[in-house]
Write a structure and sequence with these properties.
Elements: H1 14-38, H2 42-45, E1 50-55, E2 61-64, H3 69-72, H4 75-85, E3 96-99, E4 111-120, E5 123-133, E6 162-166, E7 169-170, H5 172-180, H6 185-213, H7 215-238, E8 243-251, E9 261-270, E10 273-277, H8 293-308, H9 316-319, E11 322-325, H10 344-361, E12 375-382, E13 388-395, H11 423-429, E14 432-439, E15 455-461, E16 465-470, E17 491-496, E18 499-503, E19 506-512, E20 517-521, H12 536-545, H13 550-557
Parallel strand pairs: 10-11
Antiparallel strand pairs: 1-2, 1-5, 3-4, 3-6, 4-5, 6-7, 8-9, 9-10, 12-13, 12-16, 14-15, 15-20, 16-19, 17-18, 17-20
Helix pairs in contact: 1-6, 1-7, 6-7, 8-10
Length: 567
């Protein structure tokens, strides 16, 4: 892992290479479990919004945990930027480096990355890394999701690539500054310490591998793993027909200007290389949904691997045959100081259109768009002593239908890979009472195979508070393919005494009263194939299960079955 391997060193046998691959992956997984066990916030402990990985000294990822692809595919860019400021030979044991700067390889400010050198016999042989989404990093809005931000300075505390731990001690100046800029220091500092502690666990696991196999064997095996992933990706690319395949989609708007925003891709295969060209996407916006280049690349990498061969071991070799073109000054590669906290609006869309484009090249793998947005929902209030209470959820929806069947219902997208916040824990930490949590009837796009169902998650507020949201696909829901219909769009509805109204998809500081009921309706997936070709038994089963109402079954499918009970 450290550097060049002597030419006379023989290839490592296949069994040993596989053992080392699993050992490196286990190191990343041990880091992940450590974070989950010691984190303070539900965002990390329950939603699992964090990732861990092992890198070589050049900053290339060689092993990662089963975490969030959007994080993992992007961490290399941040680490390589950090290494320009802190060369590997200057790093010492007991040091930890951090950044969250979207314009230095990061994603958005709530995502803090930490890195630590892995040392053995006095030399750095690799780097351990973690990325954690923090509940709050300051800025103008609770949870740092300011839907009306117009520059990154309004979104929270920006940490440039910097050393935050020396000789095993967290820098007191950094810690004091960090605590002074966040609303919930008890949880956020606890999560930061959890991710720092996990680094030493990863480093220890890698050091044990070196002790067992020796540095030369480990280095050679790692090089072989990287080369194998590259070889397999090139082989998968060669299965695509030569030429260009196009796809595009529309984003509702940036929350400030009610103007639809275009996202477009051309996927081109040339030999055993693939170009993902996002030229033609909208210029960067005033509102905070711009997507930094690291996030753009990560979303594209995920979509290609998911469509071509999800079994390829994920390391930087798999990305060598891929080239992402994202013109500077657009929503997929903004210039500083454009706001970016809502960049997931576009990362989901990038994944969607890349998958649709590849589906045109490989119809047997075609899949309709899934719910397509990180549906951020934030409740916040202060107690009489001025202490902040912040609750963050990211709601999921239905997946798109595909040639092999219906889209999964209410499941986190692969690029996102989050768990949900358990109702009992939310009620214990924030003054709400849940009234409903289940599938949203009629939300899946009709088709030969229907899209997956979105969700309904309703709650009654037990105190006055403020609501912030980042919903999209409200105006432009997930579309169907090959004649399939669109899924339902997302929305947030407030019921107050005798009135009911819909909150804007992207809002900040919307005031709610004690006793208000709020329901989140998430998007359904797009359908595949014309609805008239759907198996009548499948329609009947959906009606009986309550996923499709009789009225919708008649309208969308021409269903003629009998109703049982009231609609």
């Amino acid at each position: 892992m450290r550097g060049a391997v002597p030419q006379e060193q023989k290839d490592v046998d296949a069994v040993t290479t596989e053992v080392i691959r699993h050992g490196l992956t286990a190191a990343a997984e041990q880091m992940a479990k450590s974070i989950q066990r010691s984190a303070r916030s539900q965002v990390v402990r329950e939603m699992l919004d964090y990732s861990t990985a092992i890198f070589d000294i050049r900053g290339g990822v060689v092993a990662q945990s089963t975490s969030i692809p959007l994080h993992l595919n992007s961490m290399t860019r941040a680490l390589q930027t950090l290494l320009q400021r802190y060369p590997i030979e200057c790093m010492a044991s007991g040091e930890v480096y951090a950044t969250n700067d979207p314009y230095a390889g990061g994603q958005h400010l709530p995502d803090i990355l930490t890195f630590a050198p892995i040392n053995f016999d006095g030399a750095c042989i690799g780097i351990a890394g973690t990325l954690v989404h923090h509940l709050d990093v300051g800025g103008r809005a609770p949870a740092s999701y300011g839907a009306d931000a117009t520059e990154i300075y309004q979104e929270g505390l920006c940490i440039p690539p910097v050393r935050i731990v020396s000789d095993g001690e967290l820098d007191p100046v950094f810690l004091a500054m960090f605590q002074a800029n966040i609303r919930v220091p008890g949880k956020t500092v606890g999560d930061l310490k959890a991710q720092i502690a996990a680094l030493s666990i990863g480093a220890g696991e890698v050091a044990r591998l070196v002790s067992r196999y020796g540095f030369l064997t480990l280095s050679r095996a790692t090089e072989q793993l990287v080369s194998d992933s590259e070889r397999r990706m090139r082989a998968a690319i060669r299965k695509l027909p030569e030429g260009a395949f196009l796809a595009e989609d529309i984003v509702d708007g940036d929350g400030l200007d009610d103007v639809p925003l275009r996202i477009a891709v051309e996927v081109r295969r040339t030999g055993d290389e693939l170009v993902i060209d996002l030229t033609g996407s909208a210029p960067q916006t005033r509102g905070p949904i711009n997507c930094p280049i690291a996030s753009t690349e990560s979303a594209a990498y995920y979509a290609v691997m998911a469509m071509l061969d999800p079994e390829i071991p994920p390391n930087y070799g798999a990305y060598r045959p891929l080239r992402v073109i994202a013109p500077e000054g657009t929503v997929v590669n903004p210039r500083s100081p454009a706001p970016v906290v809502g960049r997931n609006v576009f990362t989901h869309r990038i994944a969607t259109i890349v998958m649709v484009a590849i589906g045109k090249a490989l119809p047997a793998k075609a899949v309709a768009p899934y719910y397509g947005n990180s549906n951020v929902f934030v409740l916040s209030t202060y107690d009489e002593a001025g202490a902040a209470y912040v609750h963050l959820e990211i709601e999921v929806g239905g997946w798109g239908a595909r040639v092999m069947g219906d889209g999964p219902d209410g499941l986190s997208a692969g690029i996102q890979n989050l768990a949900n916040n358990p109702i009992e824990l939310v009620e214990n930490e924030f003054p709400v009472r849940f009234t409903r949590y289940g599938f949203r009837p009629d939300s899946g796009g009709p088709g030969k195979y229907r899209g997956g169902m979105g969700l309904e998650r309703g709650m009654e507020l037990l105190t006055a508070c403020e609501l912030s949201t980042q919903f999209d696909r409200v105006k432009y829901p997930p579309f169907g393919i090959f004649g399939g219909g669109a899924g339902a769009g997302g929305k947030v509805v407030v019921e107050r005494r005798d009135e009911s109204y819909e909150v804007a998809g992207k809002t900040v500081g919307h005031r709610l009263q004690c006793g208000d009921r709020v329901t989140m309706f998430t998007q359904g997936g797009g359908g595949y194939g014309h609805p008239s070709t759907r198996d009548p038994a499948a329609i009947e089963a959906d009606v009986q299960a309550g996923l499709v109402t009789p009225a919708h079954a008649r309208e969308a499918y021409g269903w003629h079955g009998e109703e049982s009970g009231d609609e």
